[in-house]
Amino acid sequence: MAATPEPIAPVASSPSPPPAASPSEEPAPPAPTEAAPAEEGPSPSDKRDNFKAAPKEPPAGEAVPKEKKKGSLGGNTFGFPGVRPVLAQPAAQQLRLHFLDVGQGDSTLIECPGGERILVDGGSGIAASASPEGARDHLRGVLGNSMSIDMVVVSHPDRDHYNALPYLLEGVQVGHVQVVGAAGEYSGSFVTWLAAIPSSRKTRITAESHDPLDTPNATMDCGPATVHVLSVSARGTPDNSPKNSLSMTLMVSYRDFDAILTADATFVTEKKILGRYPSWWLDAELLKIGHHGSSTTSTSPDWVTATAPDIAVVSSGFDNSHGHPRQTVVAAVATKTGTAAAHAFRWYRSQTQPEEVADYKEAIYGTGTSGTIVVGSNGSDYWVEQER
């Protein structure tokens, strides 16, 4: 990937909680286009849903550059007390994805089986249901005494994906930072925070690129797990949300378990990914629903068909002015996901018409109602833990 070194500037003073990202109407939709033994997981209790990964093979005669499996849901439901100290202590050789409750924003911590940590985004609109304080407490609980993260990825230059990073990472040692987009597209305290990191430890990505199917990303070390950049800095027409189309979209794979992290990937991003990888390879256990569940920019029918997730997660504020996630998007993803123990879920039928389901039984979870969500896997079994 093309990289431009950043200048070094003085270290910023102790950050305070970031300002809320300004709300905006959803844009009008674009014109239609053509379309080894398993490790034991955490102790069970009432806030954990358990699932089981199963082998999946590509079509007969198609080459298989890397092992790729598809999971299937199990019928049992377990849980855990939902307390941060419990969430914070993963067993060895587990992949854990922490979808932090940052309100109307996005932040995902990848805990790799070998102990490496990658933070993807850290932004917040500070919706009524959450503030970055809770996310920072959870993050610090996970980091423990080391207070270090190997890599921070800023998927694209939307404030609700980066404006809270100086606050979330205050006092945390960061190994390397990858930032998507030009310097002029970023603002606020994040600019000062980034400038304080030596140029040798940061990379700016402006050129469109992706990783070949058989070649995991060389810069994102996740131990025995692998990371593929499926798209970054995508551009295309028509595009009603070009900044979001730049989103770095990742696939994180550990043995039989695959997760796709979309950031704010749009129809343009999805179409490019679908054009370069076979559907059987994109088939994933976990999908993070794109752009907080927007119906006008993301999650096309072809994308849902190809990714065919068993479980899905959406990051959005409990009360938000965007109408995220939209009910039509959730319903489309639910055609692929399995069932789960009853849990609260909230969607919007329109931008101003929320609807909450107290006993939702699809394996789709939202940070707005569940709080911080942790999906863990030993490469065979996988489970979902909810904060509330």
Structural features, described:
Strands 1, 2, 3, 4, 5, 6, 7, 8, 9, 18 and 19 form an eleven-stranded mixed β-sheet that branches. Strands 10-11-12-13-14-17 form a six-stranded mixed β-sheet. Mean pLDDT is 81; it is low at 1-16, 19-46 and 63-90. It is built from ten helices and 19 strands. The chain has a single domain, classed as Metallo-beta-lactamase, Chain A (4-Layer Sandwich). The termini are far apart. Helix 4 (189-195) links the parallel strand 8 (173-180) and strand 9. The chain has helices spanning 84-87, 132-143, 165-168, 189-195, 242-245, 267-276, 279-282, 301-307, 327-334, 367-370; strands at residues 48-54, 70-72, 77-78, 95-99, 106-111, 117-123, 148-154, 173-180, 202-205, 226-231, 249-254, 257-261, 286-288, 311-314, 339-350, 353-362, 364-366, 373-377, 381-386. The chain is globular. The chain has 388 residues and is an alpha/beta fold. The chain is 16% helix and 28% strand.
Give the helix/strand layout.
Layout: E1 48-54, E2 70-72, E3 77-78, H1 84-87, E4 95-99, E5 106-111, E6 117-123, H2 132-143, E7 148-154, H3 165-168, E8 173-180, H4 189-195, E9 202-205, E10 226-231, H5 242-245, E11 249-254, E12 257-261, H6 267-276, H7 279-282, E13 286-288, H8 301-307, E14 311-314, H9 327-334, E15 339-350, E16 353-362, E17 364-366, H10 367-370, E18 373-377, E19 381-386
Parallel strand pairs: 6-7, 7-8, 8-9, 12-13, 13-14, 14-17
Antiparallel strand pairs: 1-2, 1-3, 1-19, 4-5, 4-18, 5-6, 10-11, 11-12, 15-16, 18-19
